[in-house]
Design brief:
Blueprint (H helix, E strand, L loop, with lengths): L16 H51 L2 H10 L8 E11 L11 E7 L6 H6 L3 E2 H8 L7 E14 L17 E2 L1 H4 L6 E2 L11 E11 L2 H4 L18 E8 L1
Parallel strand pairs: 2-3
Antiparallel strand pairs: 1-2, 1-4, 4-7, 5-6, 7-8
C-alpha cells in the first residue's frame, strides 16, 4: 500500500561515470577547436584595424607635407636619425585622447598629432608646425602618463626615404642628383641609401619620397623612448605597405 501517493521505480538510472567523462571530453575538444578558429579571426580583425588606421594616416602625412616647407622635408627625408640607416627618417602619425576633467571648450576629445625623430635642422620649424618629438610621443603613450591628453594606439610609423625615382632624374648636363645604392643589391637595409643631399644642393622642383608604413600597437610593451629613434621600430615585422609621396618646391 502506498501511503504517500508516490511510486518509486528501481529501473530509473543516472549517468555513469564513464558517460560523464566522455561528455566532458567531447565538450573540451569542441571548445579547443572553436578557440583555435577564433585566433585567425582576431588576427584578421587587427590587420583590418591597422590598415584602416594607416590609410587614414596617409591623408595626415600629406597634410604635414603641405604644411611644411621644402627645406624641412628634404632635411627630414635625407638626414636620417640616431640608429637609423642613412637617408631614412621617421614620422609618427597618431591621435591623442582627452582623459582629463570635463571641459566644455573642447570641440572633440581627440586631436591628430605628428611626431618626428630628433633632428637639429628641423626642430625649430617642426615646433612651428605643432609637430612633437618622439620622446614627447613616448611620454604621451606610456601607461604612467599623468597628462590630460594620452596617445592612443595604433600609432602609425612612416619611414621616409628618398624614392628610387630620384635616381632617374638628371639635370641638363646629364648629372644625376644623388648617388643611389639599391638595398636589394647591397642587402644591407630595407631602404635605399643616398649620398647626403640638402635643399641647396638638390635643385629639382620635386622631391620624390618612398614611405614604408609600420604600426605600433602598444609602446609600453613594444618600445621604449630610445627605440622610437632607432631601427627597432622597423623590426616589428608589421610593415603594412609602401607608397610614393612627393614634395613640390
Amino acid at each position: 500500500m502506498n501511503t504517500h501517493g508516490r511510486v518509486f521505480s528501481k529501473s530509473k538510472k543516472g549517468f555513469s561515470l564513464v558517460e560523464v567523462v566522455l561528455a566532458i571530453g567531447v565538450l573540451a575538444l569542441t571548445t579547443i577547436a572553436l578557440v583555435g578558429l577564433m585566433g585567425p579571426s582576431f588576427k584578421q580583425a587587427r590587420t583590418i584595424t591597422d590598415n584602416n588606421a594607416a590609410t587614414a594616416a596617409i591623408g595626415k602625412l600629406n597634410s604635414a607635407f603641405q604644411q611644411a616647407d621644402f627645406e624641412t622635408i628634404i632635411n627630414l627625408v635625407s638626414q636620417g636619425g640616431a640608429g637609423l640607416p642613412a637617408g631614412v627618417s621617421l614620422l609618427f602619425i597618431y591621435q591623442e585622447e582627452y582623459v582629463g576633467p570635463f571641459d566644455a571648450s573642447l570641440p572633440t576629445r581627440y586631436r591628430d598629432r605628428v611626431a618626428y625623430h630628433t633632428s637639429a635642422n628641423i626642430t625649430e620649424k617642426a615646433n612651428d608646425y605643432g609637430w612633437m618629438t618622439y620622446s614627447e610621443l613616448y611620454e604621451s603613450a606610456r601607461a604612467g602618463n599623468t597628462s590630460n591628453w594620452r596617445a592612443v594606439s595604433p600609432i602609425i610609423v612612416m619611414a621616409l626615404s628618398l624614392s628610387p625615382i630620384a635616381n632617374d632624374l638628371v639635370d641638363s648636363s646629364g648629372v644625376k642628383p644623388v648617388t643611389y645604392n639599391d638595398p636589394y643589391l647591397t642587402g644591407s637595409t630595407l631602404f635605399p641609401t643616398y649620398a647626403a643631399i640638402s635643399a641647396s644642393s638638390y635643385t629639382y622642383g620635386m622631391l620624390p619620397v618612398m614611405v614604408s608604413v609600420f604600426v605600433i600597437q602598444n609602446i609600453d610593451t613594444e618600445m621604449n623612448s630610445a627605440d622610437l629613434a632607432r631601427t627597432d621600430v622597423l623590426k616589428l615585422n608589421r610593415r603594412l605597405f609602401t607608397f610614393q609621396a612627393a614634395k613640390l618646391r
